[in-house]
Each structure stands twice: as C-alpha cells, then as structure tokens.
Prior knowledge:
Domain CadC C-terminal: 30-163
CATH architecture of the largest domain: Alpha Horseshoe
Number of helices: 15
Number of domains: 2
Protein name: Transcriptional activator
Organism: Escherichia coli
Structural class: alpha/beta
Amino acid sequence: MVFFLLSLGICVALVAFSSLDTRLPMSKSRILLNPRDIDINMVNKNCNSWSSPYQLSYAIGVGDLVATSLNTFSTFMVHDKINYNIDEPSSSGKTLSIAFVNQRQYRAQQCFMSVKLVDNADGSTMLDKRYVITNGNQLAIQNDLLESLSKALNQPWPQRMQETLQQILPHRGALLTNFYQAHDYLLHGDDKSLNRASELLGEIVQSSPEFTYARAEKALVDIVRHSQHPLDEKQLAALNTEIDNIVTLPELNNLSIIYQIKAVSALVKGKTDESYQAINTGIDLEISWLNYVLLGKIYEMKGMNREAADAYLTAFNLRPGANTLYWIENGIFQTSVPYVVPYLDKFLASE
C-alpha cells in the first residue's frame, strides 16, 4: 500500500511539472522599434539616363554628412547603411532612403536624386524631396536637405554645427562633388583607394588653396598611408612639416580631423597616451565611425582588447559594411577580428 501511494504521488508530481513546463513562454524573435534611431539606405544607385560618374560618390558623401551631423549635434542615433547590402530586420524607428530615379520630364528622361524619410512606427512619410543635380547646385541641394531634415525631425541645428559646416565644406558646388569623390576613396581604406584619394585631394588643394579642410583630409590620408607603407625620409619630413602647419590653422582648430591626424601621427610613433588623448578630443567634437576605429586601434596598442572590441562595434554600428570592416581589419595595422571582436566575426558569418 505504501509503495502504491508513493508511486501515485510521483506520477501526480510528474504530471504537475509537465503541465507547468508547457506553460513556459515560447521564445520569439521580435524587434521593438526605437523612434530615436534612423537608418540611411541607398535604394537605387544610378540612373540609366545620367552618365555622370560622380553621382554615387555625391550621395555617399551627403549620407555620411547627414549621419555624422545628426549623431554629433542631436539626440538621434543614425546608422549609415549605404555601404551595407544585407536585408535584415532593423530596430530603427525611421528610415532615410536615397535613390536615383528616371522620370520623364518635358518629353525627356531626367535623373532625380530622391530622398525620403519614413516613420516606421506608422509608415507615414515625413519628408519626400526630389533634386535634379547640375554642375553647380550640389551645395545648394545639400543645404536644402539639411534644412528639410531639421524641420521634419523637429531638430534645430545648433550654431556650432553651422560653423562646422562652413569650415568643412567648399563654397562652390562643383568643388563639393570632387571632394566627395576623394572622400569616397578614403572610406574604402585600401591602398589603391587611399593613393587615389591623396591624388584627388592634392588636385583640389592646388586649384582651391582656400579650401583648407581638403588640405587637412589629404594630410590624414597621407599619414594613414605612411602607417601602412612607410614613406622615405624626405617624404616623411615634408609630411610632418605639412601636419605641423595644418594643426596650427585657427579655422581648423575645433574640427575632429585635426585630432584624427594627431592621433594617427602619435600612434605610428608609439605614443599611445598622446594618441589616446587626441582621439578622445576628436570624439568630443564628432561622433563618427572613423573616430571609433582609431579609438579601437589605440586600445589594441594599449593591450585593452575588451575596450577595443567595444570601439570597433560602435564604429560598425555607426557605418556597417565592407568599408568599415576593412578599416577595422587593416587600418594603421592589421587586426584579427575573430580574436579581438569575436561577436562581430560571428555576426558577419551569420550573413
């Protein structure tokens, strides 16, 4: 009788536990939108009717400027996904799409750059603009887009941003296209692209010496090239003299690029503490993917791989894609992503 009651009790207990187990919540893969996050996507990269080779570089440059401006001067978190071609769910509450589209206009096909901002919470369109790009209106288009975004997002641009734009942008629209083409090569980061960026920036500086930001970007490109393929003694002396002159220019003093130059220059000399101070000042001035790549490199040199992993993930989050990954793996010195950032390695492998 005792054994019967004991067996009965065990059976009842097992049934009870089984019942409880079936009531456990099922795991579901769901993403809750964050209204303060914005994705920037490139939908269509060219027009059949427009043969300009610079249209994509211009759109990439505009996207990079919008992302950096919002990340630096607002409470929005922007992910520039123009270089990211993976179709996957996103938690961003808003999407800014850039596309080049053909449309018949006055019996002829014209190419428009279409820019649309959509609120993913309800699918409503917050901004819908179309621009016909000509040889001289690139700067006007960019200014109009920034102003339109300010109104659509209810995000006034601070005075410091206005001052920064005056310092980093040329005053002629046609020159902006050339600069964005060079900047696009910088984004790629490989040897051939950096060499081409240096050449184009040199041409811009020669034709427009007043455009001092292009001069600074050329110095940044050249010091990165030196870190990967050392210049000869004469070339390095000339570059160091140019850097010394650039960092003293008052119009560039409050720009992040000066501290990027200082950070890389110090890092290649093994001065990690000096490099660390410089890049942190740069981050205070600008939230950008490149600043966080450089921060990761400095942490690696300090032997702080956990902090390096966080910096690299931040950089990839700001601008995901092959370009940023190349910078992480090869910029300044080679980094083993599986060793330093195993999460990113697994994330990319899952694609």
